[in-house]
Amino acid sequence: MSSSHTRSWQVDFLLLGAIWGASFLFMRLAALELGALPTAALRVLIASLFLLPLLLFKGLWPVLRQHWRPVLFVGVLNSAIPFALFAFAVMHISTGLSAILNATVPLFGALVAWAWLKDKPGLSRAMGLAIGFGGVVLLAGGQASFKPNASGVAPAWAVLACLAATSCYALSASFTKKHMPHMPPLVAATGSQVGASLALALPALWFRPQQLPSAAAWGALLVLGVLCTGLAYVLYFRLIERAGPARALTVTFLIPVFAVAYGVLLLGEGITLWMLLCGAVILLGTALSSGLVKLPGR
After folding, report:
1. Blockwise average pLDDT, block size 10, the chain, 298 residues
2. Contact criterion met (CB below 8 Å) for 135 and 281
3. DSSP the chain
4. What is the pTM for the complete model shown?
5. Residue from 251, 266, 274, 262 nearest 105 by CA
């Protein structure tokens, strides 16, 4: 791999971490006025409108039409449900905490692959699962109060929503590996956003806001849909092509760093040493369980 090619994927890597880290910020800004379900629905609708022309330009519409059933289902599992759950969560806990919990996706992915695809982990990966889930328990334990906070919702419900969302991501990854192993990434991305849009349309209309959101909320939603969803997918696919899937997966570790920084600098959120320590434990467990880091001789 040439040095210029290496630099190009490293730039993509940093950009993707920064963009996906910002998604929690924009989700919060939009959801506080629109609500969780309308925010998630409009996010995937905007992403669909952004990605569909790219799909048509690449001549991949026949592929989507042939495999529309599993692709639309993945959209429900990989976008509609988790996007709505995270939009709910960031209304009631900090964006930094939400992003740290989001970093458990590869952790749950390894567990689901073990149970569903019989991808039995070795000792190093099994230890990673134990360490990672230990970190989740410690972090969630600090937010386990079911007493409503200033937002009127107990923080524990928001934490559980984040973990439910990451479980959906994990289930979707194993479903995709089993039922769509050779699907072009742009087809999967576009079709999944369309499927999510269809799934969320009626719930979003039912829970639509009573007051017209501000221009700031609409702006946040536009950035969330185009930049943090549509463009991020394109960037992610290019990263996989240039750096390989193993390196691309490690972007998960960058997302909380950017999200915590944005929350502290732009939203005035607090960050505790306990959150940082638990986050480090979760990331270590995730690195081991996903096979990105291995113990010596294991």
Report:
1. 60 88 94 96 96 94 93 92 95 88 80 75 78 79 65 83 91 81 86 95 94 93 94 81 67 83 86 83 78 66
2. yes
3. --HHHHHHHHHHHHHHHHHHHHHHHHHHHHHHHH-HHHHHHHHHHHHHHHHHHHHHHTT-HHHHHHTHHHHHHHHIIIIIHHHHHHHHHTTTS-HHHHHHHHTTHHHHHHHHHHHHS-----HHHHHHHHHHHHHHHHHHHTT---S--TTSS-HHHHHHHHHHHHHHHHHHHHHHHHH-TT--HHHHHHHHHHHHHHHHHHHHHHT--SSPPPHHHHHHHHHHHIIIIIIHHHHHHHHHHHH-HHHHHTHHHHHHHHHHHHHHHHS-----HHHHHHHHHHHHHHHHHTTSS--TT-
4. 0.85
5. 251
